[in-house]
Amino acid sequence: MSKLARQLKFYAETYPKASTGLLIGGTALAFAAVVGFIEVQDVMAAKRHAATKRQQVGYTEEPLQSTPSAVVTPQEAQLAAMLENAKNSSWQDNLRNAADAQVRFMLPGRDVDEGNEKPEYIKRIVDRSEEILLEDKARKEKEIEESNDPHRSRFWK
Questions:
Q1: Quick check: 121 and 89 in contact, CB under 8 A?
Q2: Residue 148: helix, strand or coil by DSSP?
């Protein structure tokens, strides 16, 4: 071991610039390896956490219409209703709605309507989100009914 230490000391004294470069490069390489290991470990833990959370909630990453066991939350239904409203409105309506929504949601805790009725686009979003939740409830009830049907073939889905 002392022979190796003597050789390293000799090399460092003979070639100071190269040995300094190698020392810095080796340190950077070790640092990158440690950070990479921590990052991979963190990504794997996040995937594991997301998978357990999805199993607890019953959520899958597929679209709502194609997943028979997906749970549609009120927030998801409201988001879907907002997207439908935006797609079915003109760009002028979308700009007006965005400006109104910014006033409503960026400054919480104050009465934006001041006792007046809510705008039409909010009523449409609320109504459509309730329809989406009712449709999902009916779809789930139909699935349960079909799964309990003794004449239904379980071989072909």
A1: yes
A2: coil
Mean pLDDT of 37-41: 89
In which residue are the tokens 């190698």 written? 22
CA-only gyration radius of the chain, Å? 30
Cα separation, 21 vs 33, in Å, equals 18
For residue 21, give both structure tokens.
């470069």
* Helices 74-88, 120-147: inter-axial angle, 10-degree rounding: 130
Rounded CA separation 89/84 (Å):
9
Position of tokens 């009120």? 74
Q: What is the pTM of this model?
A: 0.47
- pLDDT tier, 112 (very low <50, low <70, confident <90, very high otherwise): low
Are 71 and 65 contacting, i.e. CB atoms less than 8 angstroms apart?
A: no
Q: Collapse the DSSP code of 153 into the 3-class scheme (helix H, G, I; strand E, B; otherwise coil) and give the result.
A: coil
